[in-house]
Each structure stands twice: as C-alpha cells, then as structure tokens.
Amino acid sequence: MSTVVITGGSRGIGAAAVELFAKRGDRVFFLYEKNHEAAQTVAEKTGATAICCDVADGNAVRAAFEKIGDTDILICNAGICHYGLMTQTTEAEWDRVFAVNVKGMYHCINAATPSFLKKQKGCIITVSSMWGQQGASCEVAYSATKGAVIAMTKALAQELGPSGVRVNCIAPGVVLTDMCAGLSEETLEDLRQQSLIGKNGKPEDIAQAMAYLADAEFVTGEVLNVNGGIIL
Hints:
Blueprint: E1 3-7, H1 12-23, E2 27-32, H2 36-46, E3 49-52, H3 58-68, E4 73-76, H4 91-119, E5 122-127, H5 131-134, H6 140-160, E6 165-172, H7 185-194, H8 203-215, E7 223-226
Parallel strand pairs: 1-2, 1-4, 2-3, 4-5, 5-6, 6-7
C-alpha cells in the first residue's frame, strides 16, 4: 500500500484520481483550497483524507505534509486557468495563476522530496496541458504556466533520477471539468471534432494515465499526451 498525495483533489481530474487510487487500496490524502462541501463528499465516498491547503502558500503546504508523513507518490494536479487577452490580464491575475500552477508545484515537491530521498524511491506526477505544448490564444498566462510544468518535470527527472525518484508529466487535452464551464457548446463540439477519436476526455481518462505512470518503474522524464489525438 502506497501513500499518495493528490493536490486539487476535491473536483474534476483530482477527484477522479482520489477515487481511483483509493480503489487500488492506497492510503490517499488530497489537498483542496476552499470547496469544503465538495471535499467532504469526496472524502466520504473514497475514505481518503482531505486537507484544506492553498498550494500557493508554502507554510500551509509544509504543515500539510507534516500531518501526512512519509509519501510514496505525489500528484501535482492543482491548477487554475485565466481566460482573456494578455493586454487585459492584470498583474494580480497573472501572479495568481503562476502562484498556484507553478509555485504550488514547487512547494509540494520540496515538501515531499525529503521522504523520497530517505527511501531512495518515489514518484512525482505533474499535470500540464496540451496548451503548455502549443499555447492557446486568450490563455497566455495558463499556457505559460503549463509550459513551465513540462520544463520543471524534465529538469527534476534528471535531478532526482539518481536518487531513485521518477518524475513524469501528463498533458491532457480537452477534459470535461469545471475548467470548461466558460466554453460554449459550439466550441466544445469543434474541439471534439478535432480529436482523432471524435470525443472530448473525462476526468477518469486522466486518472487512469496517472495510475499507469505511478506503476511504470522504467518511465521517467516523459510527457504523456492524453488528448484524444488533437496533438500528436
């Protein structure tokens, strides 16, 4: 039984991951920022432990990992998006997207790594996006953070590999979660048609990819596209 920590676990992809890893028999903790009701629902459904924690707050992250103790698998899933022209994106909006999507990953990995180094074994899974690979108009801040996630993953795989720690990334395509709430049905249909298999993704699709990477002991430094073939 592994101890798995999943950030952003109260909804969407994170909640699907909590459910899947709990079903595998793992000891699951998940961090969430503010949706107490959703977190309680996930915890009751799965038996996982919910911890309220803004990953952008380094002190809060360190306190959370002190409660958790030794960690075997860290899944850095927490993320927020921002829609709008870059020229109309305020500095505060820009900083918040980077604080959660990039600095949050920095805080969580730094908090978990001592446990990995002690055991000379560990697994880190990060979550980027196809927009981190090719960029998206009106999502410059989000695309920039997700590109940073990919670069951090590859660098960390090299840095931590000699200590027995694997670091991999998943780059989802269009996944029907709250992040798609601002997209019109017409836009979602257009994206569906761009997929080679003619469908948009579900949170469970990404969770299954996470489970694969958690078990794939000869895979590190990879970016796994889970996008229905929109980007090859």
